[in-house]
Amino acid sequence: MVVLDLLAAIAAAAVAGAALFLAHGRHGDDRGGPRAELVRYMGVAALAALACSVANVAEIAGGGEFAAAVGNCTNVVAAGLAWAGARRLNARRAIGAATTGAVGILMLAVTFVVPLDDATLLKTAGLAVFAVLGAVEFGRRPVSELPGSRLLLLTLIAYGAYNLYRLLVAAATGMSSLLWQHTASTQITTIVSALAIVGMGFGAVRLGRRLDDDPAPGTRAHDRRNLRCAAEDLLASNRQLHVLVMRIPEIDLIRTAHNSARAEDMLTALMDATRQALPHAHAGVPARDTVIAIHAGATPLSDIERDVRRIFADQMPLIDYTDTPDLSFEHHTAHDVHDVSLLMESRRLRPSPGAVPRL
């Protein structure tokens, strides 16, 4: 029965972690902003809860003190990161992650030097403290005014109260008493933990949907957002817009033969050349191998390609590159922002060629 409860906790942790990362969006983006902070802290907390559940299963299967130590450490870290994430969202001093890491390491070490029952009580005390601190943070403004914060607050209060109850029962009757076995045993604790993970995951996703991304300039996410905004503005006054997709076929070879910085210099030079050739266009680098320009289509396509090639070649000496890589061009018409989003995908992730009409 205990194993089934632990498997339920594993499933809850996996679902919570997956939901958080999916709510954030594209993997690998340096989005920045409050939502990225939420996903970073709560996502790692969900993974720590998952590791804790796996360690508990390993302990039951005979993993010994090592599995118990890993389980205690990751359990405390999961609760501590929820508090640390709330502090970040409230723009308070960033001491939460360091404190949580220190407590987690301490918990890992203590498990090897004290009896397992005493280590369990120390872990329970840590969980109660972090749950209370997290509840206090989620009750502060401005986070407390957002949807999902109340569910997070109530979940942490309930979880902290349960762990405090475990400490009181252990102090009053001991861990071998019938009261402990019927109301605070490992089996019951696992069920409570699984419910807490579900509550925290659901509340964090609701909260994340109301938080904003703030991509740092120069990142892929920043360029994608700017290109979508430009497309919306153009489509507000035009039935369609023209999308110029440019690539350097040798970019992967350049990245391998030189380094990623050299490849980024190439893409930046191509974007600058595009902006000079099409001064009224909106250009960006939305993927690791793609430069896109959105324009109204007033300039002949052959003139665009000729000017971009010429300016791009002129920029090679500026980045200390002796050769001029070849360029490939695609010209598309888009009728909505979704079409533009499809074209912004990397070459390896884009849909079929006919998904967006070509000129």
SSE arrangement:
Blueprint: H1 2-24, H2 33-89, H3 96-113, H4 116-138, H5 149-173, H6 178-183, H7 186-208, H8 220-237, E1 241-247, H9 251-257, H10 260-277, E2 282-287, E3 290-295, H11 301-315, E4 328-334, H12 337-343
Antiparallel strand pairs: 1-3, 1-4, 2-3
Question: How would you portray this structure in words?
Answer:
There is one protein chain. By secondary structure, the protein is of the alpha+beta class. It is 67% helix and 7% strand. It contains twelve helices and four strands; from the N terminus they run ααααααααβααββαβα. The protein has helices at residues 2-24, 33-89, 96-113, 116-138, 149-173, 178-183, 186-208, 220-237, 251-257, 260-277, 301-315, 337-343; strands at 241-247, 282-287, 290-295, 328-334. A hairpin with a 2-residue loop joins β2 (282-287) and β3. It is elongated and about 85 Å long. The N and C termini lie far apart (64 Å).
Summary tags:
359 residues
Major sheet: 4 strands, antiparallel
- Strand order in space, largest sheet: 2-3-1-4
Q: Provide the helix percentage.
A: 55-70%
- Helix and strand composition category: alpha+beta
DSSP strand tally: 4
**What's the quaternary structure here?**
single chain
What fraction strand?
5-15%
Radius of gyration over all CA atoms, rounded: 27 Å
Shape: elongated
Q: How many angstroms does the end-to-end distance come to?
A: 64 Å
Overall average residue pLDDT: 81
Contiguous helical run count: 12
Element-by-element helix/strand order: HHHHHHHHEHHEEHEH
